[in-house]
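Morning F.,

Quick status update on the modeling queue. The single chain you submitted on Monday has been processed. Sequence for confirmation:
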Amino acid sequence: MAFFENLGLLDGSFWRDARHPPSELLQLLQQDALYVAFQPIANLKNGTVYAHEALIRGPAHSQLHSADAILLAAQKLGFLYEFEVHCVLRALKQWGQLKQPGRLFVNISANALIQGVQIVGVQRLSQVAHSLGVMPRQVVLELTEHERVIDMDALAEVVKVIQSLGFSIALDDFGDGRSSLRLWSQIKPMVVKIDKYFSGDISNRPDNFKTIQALMQIAEIFDTALVAEGIETGDDLRVFRDLGIAYGQGYFLGKPDICAVQQILAPAVAVLVDSRVAVMPERPQSTRQGQLKHLSMIQAPTVSQHTPIDDVADLFLARSELHALAVLEADRPIGIINRQQFMDRYATLFFREIFGKKSCMQCANTEPRLIERNHDVEELVGILTSQDQRYLNDGFIVVDNGRYLGLGTGEQLVRSVTELRIEAARHANPLTFLPGNIPISNHIKRLLDSGAWFAACYLDLNHFKPFNDYYGYWRGDDMIRLVAKLALQHSDPNKDFVGHVGGDDFLILFQSDNWQERAQCIISVFEAQAPLLYDEASRLKGGIETEDRNGVTRFFSFTSLSIGALVVNKGQLATAEDVANQAALAKHTSKVAGGGLQVIHAGAALKVP
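Structure tokens below.
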């Protein structure tokens, strides 16, 4: 303690040193006008206050009110590290006077921590904390990086020592460009705080959502707890709660105050105890539909440009299953020899006698179709539909960054692309880009596990097939997209999940309290807009005359929308399959009634004929 008094970091003599030029910060320090505010860090599992963060503040409405402005001023004056130590001491002293039982997070840069420990000495650290009325186990040193860590190894040694004394370490603002994965790995902090850039507005930022999921996997590897900073809305808080992030901090949970609060704000508590689940932000359309990493290929022998034609013939005769052979230069393909074409030429009169000892390149296609192992599906679809159809006869060569891996046939390519697109459609419908069957089932499971009530609304079009047959699939796709657009427009993106089962079938999993009003709006707006997809003559008649499923020509009125709603309460259904089956029965009830919204309740759905 005497060291800090001698240095003047507690009694103010350091700031009165004449060597420092006059400044607003020095005046505030000399007047003891700076103070510490405490912001709660909440446990997102039970809603309790886990800890507080100490934040240095200047007078309200002054240029030096925020911590960033104050630290920048100290850096310009050339005593940033001393000022950081002063802030830590000030926070500990004020915390000790409040006699709070919880943990206190205090900010200090890595370089300031190294210098402070080197000057003070290890044994004095816990003595200083005790003298200020704080136990070391209460203190979490939150490492901030105003600049790059000069000596990572030195920091790791310092951290190891202070952890042995009972202090804990947190890493602040991870992901802001200064905090590194190496720092996380080397110092092994108890807590890592996710930078506001990634956590702010998370309910509307799919890319950042994916980033945080990746950080959670890293945190599990390092056995580190995560704190989501910058939580400003209930929707964001719900996402972090459902993700399983341990702790959160932000104005929605509690604002900084000179008094340490014992409870987070009531709206935040309401979100944390609410059984309704978050609708996780997802990209409306995946930029990468998938890759053919498991593309079937044939492990075939290869030849070089110097291989004689007779040797190629011997290979084909010995391996009857080979449709082709790749010609390589080093390990890169320069040609492909089609079996059928080669054997037809080889069997002609005097061919083997004249050309048998010559290079096989005379029989090779020098522009083979190469397919990279990590090709996007859409690129491969382009191959299937292009005018260049060489793959049908020669097959193709599978490469990895241009290096030969094996051979494939046109049939294998078509099958692989088809299988992958079917699998992709189960995740996201290729027409509307809405979530498909797998995400729908996963969200239903989350709803059932949470015990939340919800309404599963099954949407289906009436008289859609006659419309589609009459106008063609292009106009039919427009009508399906209209349903998707209206479903999204009349749903709350943070509460209601919109999925596309397939064809003209959609499922909305409502958690909005006014879900019936929303469903009725979808029906009424669709009835107003669907006729616009008909030609003028059909609009005047109110529909179209076309063949039904039995080939009989009859009149079909405008396509309308049926919505069967299944209301599910806690414990009524066990699996996503149960929900899907009973929602389908609810849809059947609506179609039998001629359209509109028909509501039934779980259990009662079983009585529907």
